Amino acid sequence: MQAKYGIMIPKVDNLGNQLTSLAEVAHHHLFYGPLKVEGSYIDPDKLGQWRDESPEPHDILVVYAEDHPEMDSQMKLLASQIAEVANQWGIFVTKEGKSGIQSWIVDNPGFRPGEPAEDLALAQRPSANLPPASDSPELTSGGTPPPESAH
Predict the structure, then answer these.
(1) Beta carbons within 10 angstroms of residue 56's beta carbon
(2) Residue 124, in any domain of the structure
(3) 121 part of a folded domain
(4) Which residues pair with 46 in a beta bridge?
(5) Looking at residue 45, which CATH number applies to its domain?
(6) N or C: where does the chain have the smaller number of CB atoms within 10 Å of the terminal CB?
(7) Domain count within the chain
């Protein structure tokens, strides 16, 4: 049986800085990474909020995949990576499957209040040496961006 997952991906960091399209990077990762998903799409520009925070713009990555605990774990892991790169305190994940509707807030233990997202996630990066976000299909935190491939 399949499940429908939704990952709310922020469009701004906790300082209000515009982020690259992390939803596009995550979408790419799902199709060219190790997970087997049946399909996915991005539902853009939604306002979302939880806890006592103000509404913020999000893209929702909607994923159709097997309803299995391993897939639940992989979706939570992806949300954790997004939270880390975007420097968000957490990411909201939903699942509609054989057990009904479930939701999780995937906390980021490395959240740094008052600090921006990782440089690779920011739409306006301070370093001109970094490649454009569309050339960086991997969700990574820190380190060196992947080398550009010859086309």
Answers:
(1) 17
(2) no
(3) no
(4) 58
(5) 3.30.70
(6) C
(7) 1
